[in-house]
Request: fold
Amino acid sequence: MVKIGVLGLQGAVREHVRSIEASGAEAVVIKKIEQLNDVDGLVLPGGESTTMRKLIDQYGFMEPLQEFIAAGNPIFGTCAGLILLAKRIQGNDNAHLQALNVTVERNSFGRQRESFEAALNIKGFDEPFTGVFIRAPHIVEAGEGVDVLAEHNGRIVAVQEGSFLGCSFHPELTEDHRIMEYFVEMVKSSLAVKNG
Ligand code: GLN
Reply:
């Protein structure tokens, strides 16, 4: 069984654990940097990206996360996790992990729409997926090599770039595990490549 970590410093951690387990993989809540050595993929959950970044710095996670990424391990960022993963953040010169080749804008759906649900057509899925958006960012620009998987009202809300998967919404807050199942498949293929 593949092992997938969920960065457990802040945010919707338990919900991702549930979703990973429902998708046929083992879930590990990552609270210590050493634990990154034991997992084949990582989820960066939703929550509050500035708070999460502070905790990442406080617990010395920045470099280990960068190494984890450089080693080609798959990473799935949801909402605040997408912001952490992005190469560029609109109006902020200090993006966090600077991995996924997109520009994100934080809290970009407006005040009246702090939180809402929308039926999304996701590339490769037969049936729509209900996206739960909570003070969500959107992807303003998808750079070279980035595959757009879903848009909502003309705004990009889900992407993949090689071993990176990112979405604006919270797939773990629904009972629909198709996106997590997709990520589990990404982790399996990356392991197959690693193990030759
Ligand atoms: N607004 C949050 C941020 O900027 C993200 C919200 C979320 O993860 N639900 O980090």
